[in-house]
Design goal:
Rossmann fold; six-stranded antiparallel sheet; alpha/beta; elongated; nine-stranded mixed sheet; single chain; Beta-Lactamase; 448 residues
């Protein structure tokens, strides 16, 4: 974008914002307000064209006018010059290390060094600050007193930002390219084998409590969202997240009775904070048939496990871990750090009594050739595949460990293959809820 065009967008944005304020548009829906802003922007652009004609300059052509109008809308309602990247369906991740250090990773593994998204770091901070004030269930701060931000964007993407604790402001955006998904869709995409998909669907329908573990950006949220598609439509779901991401509430046809809860930070006076742990406790009183915790990050683990073990069967959550066994260690680590300070042995008893299955998602990265970016940095292009590699059935606790059977274990290419037998009662219950193990593995998974 040229300096002249950026100046024009900045000027007209201010004018359109004033026009919106005068019009009393705050009573309009977001969609109607945006449409009004588009009309106002085009009116201002026509006035600008007339000015240029009077001055003897060439006015913008119709295509340029539409582009400038879109840039004004992106500045008012979106993320300014970042928005076109968020809107690109081929983009998977956007990492901004300062206004002019922008890395874009595409779904096909390509990673490029992109154009600046702001004229200064201060402008980048202001873009994020404006989004924090407008998006989410409540206004969030982004300043030196609150230098970190997690935010769900309107399309479901997750924005994470830092300032003050880094030399330059840092913004990372993870786009959720697949939102309205089922387990069958994941089979078609190659993330799940049919037997694993059948197993997980039956576990959901049988109201088993499931924890999904994996590394960052491994697809945990996507899998939970797909598993939730097998929850009967009449059930009431309460989701709890640090920053809204699951988005079940945006699909009323599939999930007609959903309440999405989002943790809230303290205000400038240090008051008003509502933690994840508090929201989990509140969810138990909201007649929820199932509770889904988007990501376990701390002391909310204890109320979550208590909820799972006290009648909220069929609940789910995700957690960062390096293996299916590592999920138990991570849960225990969070639990012993909570204010209740449970001893480890009691913690493992609680875990074993609350969780039925642990699912682990693995990631494979395969180089697919070199790629050179504009500044001549050489980068490898990577093809990333995400897949379930392990499923454990929780059996019991024995001292300082959880006893489990790895009913699906890493096989060829680390993808999940039938492993240890399910307990007979579990096998019969899952089969009754639609589980169809492949014929070759029925002796293996047939229960004992």
């Amino acid at each position: 974008m040229s300096v002249e065009r950026r100046t024009l967008v900045t000027r007209l944005r201010s004018e359109v914002a004033d026009d919106l304020a005068v019009s009393g548009s705050r009573t309009l829906s977001q969609a109607d307000r945006r449409e009004l802003a588009r009309r106002l922007a085009l009116d201002r652009l026509r006035g600008h064209a007339e000015e240029r004609v009077v001055l003897g300059s060439v006015p913008l052509d119709p295509i340029e006018e539409q582009q400038v109008a879109q840039e004004i809308l992106d500045s008012l309602f979106g993320l300014g010059r970042v928005q076109h990247l968020v809107d690109d369906p081929a983009v998977e991740n956007i990492d901004i290390n300062g206004c002019d250090r922008v890395w874009v990773t595409y779904a096909d593994g390509k990673k490029i060094f992109s154009a600046p998204v702001a004229d200064s770091d201060d402008e980048l901070i202001e873009i994020v600050r404006s989004a924090a004030a407008r998006l989410g269930l409540s206004e969030r701060r982004f300043d030196t007193s609150h230098p970190e931000l997690d935010l769900r964007l309107p399309d479901g993407s997750r924005l994470s930002a830092l300032m003050s604790v880094t030399a330059r402001p840092v913004v990372s955006i993870r786009r959720h390219r697949f939102v309205d998904l089922s387990l069958g869709d994941l089979v078609e995409m190659g993330s799940l084998d049919p037997a694993v998909a059948s197993f997980l669907a039956a576990a959901v329908r049988a109201r088993k409590n499931v924890v999904v573990g994996g590394a960052i950006n491994s697809g945990k949220t996507t899998l939970i969202r797909a598993m939730a598609s097998d929850i009967p439509r009449h059930e009431r779901i309460v989701t709890i997240e640090q920053a809204l991401e699951l988005g079940l509430d945006t699909m009323p046809d599939r999930f007609p009775d959903v309440v999405s809860l989002e943790a809230r930070e303290a205000n400038a006076e240090g008051e008003g904070e509502i933690s994840m742990a508090r929201l989990v406790r509140r969810a138990v009183r909201m007649n929820a048939d199932r509770v889904i915790v988007g990501e376990v990050l701390g002391d909310e683990v204890l109320p979550m496990l208590n909820a799972m073990g006290q009648g909220r069967a069929g609940s789910m959550c995700t957690i960062h871990a390096d293996s299916s066994m590592g999920v138990f260690r991570r849960l225990a680590t969070y639990a012993v750090q909570a204010v209740e300070h449970l001893p480890l042995e009691s913690t493992y008893l609680l875990i074993a009594g609350a969780i039925h299955f642990v699912v682990f998602i693995d990631v494979d990265e395969e180089p697919i050739g070199p790629h050179t970016v504009p500044d001549a940095l050489g980068l490898r292009r990577l093809r990333r595949s995400r897949f379930v590699s392990s499923i454990r059935e929780v059996v019991d606790a024995d001292g300082l460990q959880v006893v489990s059977n790895e009913v699906f274990r890493p096989g060829t290419g680390r993808r999940a293959e039938p492993g240890a037998p399910l307990r007979a009662a579990s096998y019969e219950e899952l089969v009754a809820h639609g589980y169809e193990p492949p014929p070759a593995s029925r002796d293996t998974l047939g229960g004992r």
